[in-house]
Amino acid sequence: MSVKHSLLALLGEGPQYGAALRSEFESRTGGTWPLNVGQVYTTLGRLERDGLVVKEVVPEGAGDSSIRYAVTPAGRDEVARWWVEPVDRASTPRQELAMKLALAVTVPGVDVTRTVQVQRRATMQHLQELTRLKRTGGADLAWSLVLENLIFTAEAELRWLDHVEAQVTRAAGAARVRAHRGDVASSAVTEQDAEAPGTGPAHPSVTAGARPGARR
Amino acid sequence: MSAPVLELRHVTRIHGEGPTQVRALYDLSLTVAPGELVAVMGPSGSGKSTLLSLAGALDAPTDGTVVIEGQVLDDLTHAQLAAVRRRHVGYVFQDFNLLPALTAAENVALPLELDGSRPRRARRMAVEALREVGLQAEADRFPEQLSGGQRQRVAIARGLVGERRLILADEPTGALDSTTGEAVLQVLRARCDAGAAALLVTHDARLAGWADRVVFLKDGVVVDATQGPLSADSLLGARV
């Protein structure tokens, strides 16, 4: 799983302390992938080494200070690439995809539809190849069972991606209706905020609506 | 590369007029070459069935051009369109539409006889098409004597019979179980490998996996498509 890209994505919203990043990551992904603080700082150290984040010293009075991290332009480019690249099935466990989409619907300005679409194309192409191998593979039972397992997995992933897309579309529709009615003043403020220039063409109302309350 | 069997050029289809008008397809271009099986996927209402109707000359576009086996359909009379449908296009639909009073072979031979073939020749070609789908022995049985999977294969044989090179399939495995459904796809695939072109509309990713290309439709527009086959290496990597 790509902790590196997840942390970069969170830093894209503004500078953060390491501990805060860790809890933000866990709350956004439903606590499915617990991180320890050491893992977070090791990752931040590597990101800093690679020029993707920088340390900022924040004075705290009485001579004390603390360190927080901010994303660099190169880091922003890296995370922008991550959103639109399919997860590489050959080298990473499958959970990266669930993690990526959990973050994509909460980080403002991500074109979730495009993220889903790019992944769907890659997974469909993978399924086509698996089917071709099965068709031409002969009668080896063990091999055909392994292939079937991969086919079922790809099929399930495609169904899940359709589900994600439908949910995102529905959430965007519901948010639009709410905005039209103007029945909740605070939600109208959130909408304007999300639709401000520079947040991108994604589903701003979705990202705003789905955001967890806790911000650090 | 050989000439395409089916070409849709910037096709738009709008149903109704004024405020109630619905744009079912917009500026869609698609080419299917001999030997190619192309799957079309998309949510309900995305234009899949409209696409299939236009590709099969069952409906005409509001704008754009459909070409089947080199014939531009815009220029054809109703009678000529009917001839294109009978000679070049095989349809396989979810409900098999077999006539219960006719045997499997008679059902398959029917479109040939309607097109003027002599009964003996039509019978010979029908039995050949049934052999292709593995049902030669069932040629003289009536639909009610066949299983669901066998009936669907008879419907496919009827779609394939004769010289047709364009096969249009709309959820062709319908309510069949996955093993039987797969047998149906094997038949379609074999026909394409022998030089036919097929357009398969389906919700089922597993079936779309049999295609050479998968086109994703949404709101009447192609939003994405898979390209040709990947290298074998990328799969070997996936197996590790």
Task: Report on the architecture of this protein.
- The complex is a heterodimer of chains A (216) and B (240).
- Chain A has nine helices and two strands; from the N terminus they run αααββαααααα.
- Chain A is mainly α and 216 residues long.
- Chain A has two domains: 84 residues, Winged helix-like DNA-binding domain superfamily/Winged helix DNA-binding domain (Arc Repressor Mutant, subunit A, Orthogonal Bundle); 131 residues.
- In chain A, strands 1-2 form a two-stranded antiparallel sheet.
- In chain A, helix 1 packs across helix 3, helix 2 packs across helix 3 and helix 6 packs antiparallel against helix 7.
- The C terminus of chain B is likely disordered.
- Chain B is 35% helix and 25% strand.
- In chain B, the strands form two sheets. Chain B has a six-stranded mixed β-sheet. Chain B has a four-stranded antiparallel β-sheet with strand order 2-1-4-5, with helices on one face.
- Chain B is α/β, with parallel strands linked by helices and 240 residues long.
- Chain B is built from eight helices and ten strands.
- At the A-B interface, helix 6 and helix 7 of A face helix 7, strand 10 and helix 8 of B.
Briefly characterize the structure.
By secondary structure, chain A is mainly α. Chain A has helices spanning 3-11, 18-28, 37-49, 73-84, 95-104, 112-136, 141-181, 185-194, 204-210, and strands at residues 53-59, 65-71.
Write the layout of secondary structure elements.
The complex is a heterodimer of chains A (216) and B (240).
Chain A: H1 3-11, H2 18-28, H3 37-49, E1 53-59, E2 65-71, H4 73-84, H5 95-104, H6 112-136, H7 141-181, H8 185-194, H9 204-210
Antiparallel strand pairs in A: 1-2
Chain B: E1 6-15, E2 22-32, E3 37-41, H1 48-55, E4 63-68, E5 71-72, H2 78-88, E6 89-92, H3 104-114, H4 119-132, H5 148-160, E7 166-170, H6 178-193, E8 197-201, H7 205-208, E9 213-218, E10 221-225, H8 232-239
Parallel strand pairs in B: 3-8, 3-9, 6-7, 7-8
Antiparallel strand pairs in B: 1-2, 1-4, 4-5, 9-10
